[in-house]
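Input for the complex:
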Amino acid sequence: MKISTKGRYAVRLMVDLAQNNTGANVSLKDVAKRQDLSVKYLEQIITLLTKSGYVISTRGANGGYRLAQKPENYTVGMILRLTEGSLAPVACVESDVNMCPRKDDCCTIFVWKKLYKAICDVVDNITIADIVNMGADNYII
Amino acid sequence: MKISTKGRYAVRLMVDLAQNNTGANVSLKDVAKRQDLSVKYLEQIITLLTKSGYVISTRGANGGYRLAQKPENYTVGMILRLTEGSLAPVACVESDVNMCPRKDDCCTIFVWKKLYKAICDVVDNITIADIVNMGADNYII
DNA sequence: CCTATATCATATAAGATTGCTATGAATTAA
DNA sequence: TTAATTCATAGCAATCTTATATGATATAGG
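Predicted:
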């Protein structure tokens, strides 16, 4: 039940792009320095974000990245699904693709469905803008 | 964000013991047959449950397992924490053991804390008895 | 005492995933 | 032309997952 570094770094990456948006491109080198992460690993992660159109890239000198849309348009859920894959705690609670033969008389599936819903309710209702606006010491749980 | 087979089988195992409690011992062979799982794998899983005192074992012929307490005393959370380890989606949201150096000015930690709380709220409020009482076709999400 | 039936204790292992690092090509501003 | 970037792949050690395998130990019943 862990979120991998890939997913977590992707969120931090998006937040960093939002925080450092001055209209100019933001280079991964700068992000990596600020976030204390490897440029090379971030390159792999941002590839997913650019290919999905969440981030716009510009090559060459003075190149870099920008958010394609406003921070409030990106939920944590969108980013995690992209990087982590499905957020379902077990495969059988989603598409019929991974249809389990025991599904019909499985008495535990409602547990996983409820868990899945709870997870989605959280990540689909927090945006990058929420994170940016949330100061480090005044958050409420 | 997946729950492994170990955790899922552990829950099914506990439910099976609850459902088939006649006062007599329940052998893993029977559980394995009903749940369509390997006896050997179940042995490993139930070891965790017996060592924690959730299940009482009896060796030898006519031996087997019984729940130590009533099904309503076991939550899904208890079982998953035992088999999966911590349910925290990221290490930094729990004990100070895995203290992250960025923790104090980390603006994403509230996301993971909220997610962690949501997960716990679900798994700590469903008991084995709830699962047993929940028919396969009349559950409500 | 013998045997069948259980649990208990370890060891092994293939395959997948994680969390990176490495190499180098392609693009572009200055 | 050069320096700064992104882009595209490959590689790899470590760990985790999901079991299977072997055999020891305990016990009820005959």
